[in-house]
Amino acid sequence: NLHCERHVQYFSTIEKYLKLNDWEIVEDFNVNKIIVCGCGFHDAMYEKINRTLTKIKYQNFLQKNVIITACLPKTHDVELKKNFNGYTVSLNNEELLDELIQAKVRFKDVRPVNIFRFNEKCGTGDEESEHFYIKISQGCLKECTFCVINKAKGYIKSVPFENIRDQVGAALKLGRKRIFLMGEDTFAYGIDMGTTIIELVGKILAMGPDLELYFGYLHIRWLKKYREDIISLCKKNIIRELHIGLQHVNEEMLRRMGRPDVFSEIYDIIRDIKSE
Prior knowledge:
The protein is an alpha/beta fold. The chain contains 12 helices and 9 strands. The protein has helices at residues 5-20, 43-58, 72-75, 77-83, 95-100, 149-153, 161-173, 197-207, 221-225, 227-235, 251-256, 263-275; strands spanning 34-37, 66-70, 87-90, 132-135, 137-138, 157-158, 178-182, 212-218, 239-244. The strands form 3 sheets. A 4-stranded parallel sheet has the order 4-7-8-9, sandwiched between helices. A 3-stranded parallel sheet has the order 1-2-3. The protein has a two-stranded antiparallel sheet with strand order 5-6.
């Protein structure tokens, strides 16, 4: 799933991890292991993985040498147990991956990849991203009734500022000015640590006041809570992108989805942000 920047960072980091452990990555099935990084966002992703497993089977490759990682082992655990007898390594359980590849460099010790480069076969061109990607949190408040990702990611766990600071410092050394902050709910950052996303942004800008910030997905609730802060940052040309999932405009449907709000009020806030 190339549309999920967290997923792209995850499989890019796995690639780096394998290379650090002296594994060679090739484009055919003449290999010891096949690692499938499976997005579990919706069933279409699972079907895509199924088609991949079928192709592998036609190559007479044993499933015991296939490893499925990322969100899929948690979001589609029941389906996988029925149709797959290889190994599954879910998020935050990568020590199993360390065992499977006999790693000298453990996955938890590998610095995450911040700049994504795609192969031409991915259909994205061979140019690297202009953004420097930093994951600031994982998980959410787990209140939406329709979303399966909270099953894979769990309750929000914010990344300590010291870790984020080091990554911003690396971006500045490389001359990178466009920082993409990633998370399942970016503006929920800090709720588990007694801080806020606004405080984090202030600390980041203290390191580089001319940085441009791009924010991954955020819950609509934060538009009300941080309305004035967001507008202030927009006026300064600091916020370049907000990924806001509205999901619906009907208030009863929003309530049933676990996202109760008055759409007209949200629309007014978005209009004010857009004007700035």
